[in-house]
Amino acid sequence: MEEQSYRLFRDLIPDEWAVHEYRPDYGIDLVVEIFKYIDEERERRTHYANCSLFNSSR
């Protein structure tokens, strides 16, 4: 179930965002780095922020 939720999350966010999983899980499930492409070829991107996602059901 966890892998399915990670896959669904990745399918819903923009391609330029980077998702990092934490294994073993110590309360942080994923860290997302938010980027935006800065060229028309979609090769260069700039970094905006980091966001940690927690699973509070544990």
Cα-to-Cα separation, first versus last residue:
14 Å
Q: Uncertain spans, ≥5 residues at pLDDT below 50? A: none
What integer is the average pLDDT?
A: 77
What pattern of helices and strands is seen along the backbone?
A: HEEE
Sheet with most strands: strand arrangement: 1-2-3
Instruction: Quickly count the helices.
Output: 1
Number of strands: 3
Gross morphology: elongated
Structural class: alpha+beta
**Helical content band:** 10-25%
The major β-sheet equals: 3 strands, antiparallel
Report strand %. 35-45%
Note down, in words, how this protein is organized.
By secondary structure, the protein is an alpha+beta fold. The protein has one domain. It has 1 helix and 3 strands, in the order αβββ. It has one helix at residues 2-12, and strands spanning 18-21, 28-37, 45-54. A 3-stranded antiparallel sheet has the order 1-2-3, with no helix packed on it. The model has no long low-confidence stretch (mean pLDDT 77).
Mind sketching the topology for me?
Blueprint: H1 2-12, E1 18-21, E2 28-37, E3 45-54
Question: Quick recap of the structure?
Answer:
With 58 residues, this protein is α+β, with helices and mostly antiparallel strands. The protein contains one helix and three strands, in the order H-E-E-E. The chain has one helix at residues 2-12; strands at residues 18-21, 28-37, 45-54.
List keywords for this structure.
1 helix, alpha+beta, 3 strands, elongated
